[in-house]
Amino acid sequence: QVQLVESGGGLVQPGGSLRLSCAASGSIFRSHGMNWYRQAPGKQRELVATISSAGSTNYAASVKGRFTISKDNAKNTVFLQMDSLKPEDTAVYYCYCLSSWGQGTQVNVSS
């Protein structure tokens, strides 16, 4: 089973930026897609962004144009660049691949 470790969360003011990272225990991103999800307090976990093995991307409507998913196959790492952050982006962010979840990283957007 693949191990996924997220990092990069924190507290940021509205309009600010954060970059999340998801490091995998093996070279899985060359041949498998990866997803970023988030879960806000009292809400269901929702899909935020996906990247395929070939590098094609898709985004939830709520983040399109503000978030960018990318990957570095050599470093077994996938990134989520989050710009123009809003209070409603506050959530725990998780990466998911091959039926494995990371532990999550907390993002708080508040003034």
Structure description:
With 111 residues, this protein is mostly beta strands. Helices cover 0% and strands 50% of the residues. It contains no helices and eleven strands. Strands 2, 4, 5, 6, 9, 10 and 11 form a seven-stranded mixed β-sheet that branches.
* Uncertain runs: none
Number of helices, counting only DSSP H or I runs of 4 residues or more: 0
Oligomer: single chain
Radius of gyration computed on alpha carbons: 13 Å
Strand content: over 45%
Give, in order, the helices and strands: EEEEEEEEEEE
Q: What kind of sheet is the major sheet? A: 7 strands, mixed
Q: What does the average pLDDT come to? A: 95
Binned, the helix content reads under 10%
Helix vs. strand class: mainly beta
Could you give the count of β-strands? Answer: 11
**Overall 3D form:** globular
Ends: how far apart? Answer: 39 Å
Throw out a few tags for this protein.
111 residues, mainly beta, 4-stranded antiparallel sheet, globular
Short recap of the structure:
This protein is an all-beta fold.
Could you give the topology of this structure?
Layout: E1 4-7, E2 10-12, E3 18-24, E4 34-39, E5 46-51, E6 57-59, E7 67-72, E8 77-82, E9 91-97, E10 100-101, E11 105-109
Parallel strand pairs: 2-11
Antiparallel strand pairs: 1-3, 3-8, 4-5, 4-9, 5-6, 7-8, 9-10, 9-11
